[in-house]
């Protein structure tokens, strides 16, 4: 598998909030080889805590992207970029504000899922790709895939949104708000101006622990932990969550957590019309995947998208896969997803 990592720079990007953010850099990785007519490109869109490193050792979708896998890099050229507002090479709150010479911190302008997609489109244009074979991702990545299909339908042959939604429910917003409040309640948050100091490690760890609970299901937690003890006075599930929280602090920025979760909460495809009207005349093919045990992004939210597409006679396939892994299933349940995606991409490429 041919893998490349790079960063590109743009003079500015116009954001939905009315601000022109300048300059902007984007970290991205590519896997495989772009064919001569540039018709085999797939954009993989990461979830909330992901980054541009999607494949290979340590890649967040290493079990799905690679030679012979669902997104076969012997056939396809896969691109993944870190989202706007992130903390792994793309401009975000930890980046330097050229006007002050200091990190943006909470002075960073508010961002949206549409802004993330706008920057991705700028990257794809820079790479000289007029039309993507597919856009795909789970969770927040699925939101971006939907935004691509609605905003740039001429640039996307197929969309594969997985375990996602067209808009957050009150419950989804509530969990994100609890995480944000945990960060902001940490005395080391310092109104976001913690760069060069301790940082809100305890608050960010608690936010991640809360989030991680929502990614699992009751059954998966029962199978993995039950009521087993890690120490005489500590359950295994407690030790596990504390470990996940501490590891997250090592790799993620608290202000990026705040900005990106707010972008997710504000995402609403129906803001400017019904889902049915948004998909009017859509030429993009869709494969929508959900999971039976996912209570964070429950299947009914995917079914709402599928229903709107079918009412517009769009080309859409839908699968609600049985799994006990909860929301994490899109990262874990490889075999069935692989078969579905492999066939869908092949039919799209030869359509």
The main pleated sheet reads as: 8 strands, mixed
**H/E topology pattern:** EEEEEEEEEEHEHEHHHEEHHHEHEHH
pLDDT below 50 for ≥5 consecutive residues: which ranges?
Answer: none
Global mean pLDDT = 96
**What's the CATH topology label of the largest domain?**
Rossmann fold
Count of DSSP-assigned helices: 11
Task: Tell me the helix content.
Answer: 25-40%
Shape: globular
Integer-rounded radius of gyration: 20 Å
Task: Describe the structure in your own words.
This protein has 351 residues and is an alpha/beta fold. The protein folds into 2 domains: 248 residues, Alpha/Beta hydrolase fold, catalytic domain (Rossmann fold); 95 residues, Orthogonal Bundle (Rna Polymerase Sigma Factor, Chain: A), CATH 1.10.1740. The protein is 37% helix and 19% strand. It has an 8-stranded mixed beta sheet with strand order 1-4-8-5-11-12-15-16, sandwiched between helices. α3 packs antiparallel against α4 and α3 runs antiparallel to α7. The longest helix is centred in the middle third of the chain and has 16 residues. It starts with a strand and ends with a helix. The mean pLDDT is 96.
In short:
This protein is an alpha/beta fold.
Topology readout:
Elements: E1 3-10, E2 13-14, E3 20-21, E4 24-31, E5 41-45, E6 65-66, E7 71-72, E8 77-81, E9 96-97, E10 102-103, H1 113-126, E11 134-138, H2 140-151, E12 158-162, H3 170-185, H4 201-215, H5 218-224, E13 229-231, E14 234-235, H6 236-251, H7 254-266, H8 275-278, E15 285-291, H9 299-311, E16 316-321, H10 329-332, H11 334-349
Parallel strand pairs: 5-8, 5-11, 6-7, 11-12, 12-15, 15-16
Antiparallel strand pairs: 1-4, 2-3, 4-8, 9-10, 13-14
Helix pairs in contact: 1-2, 3-4, 3-7, 4-6
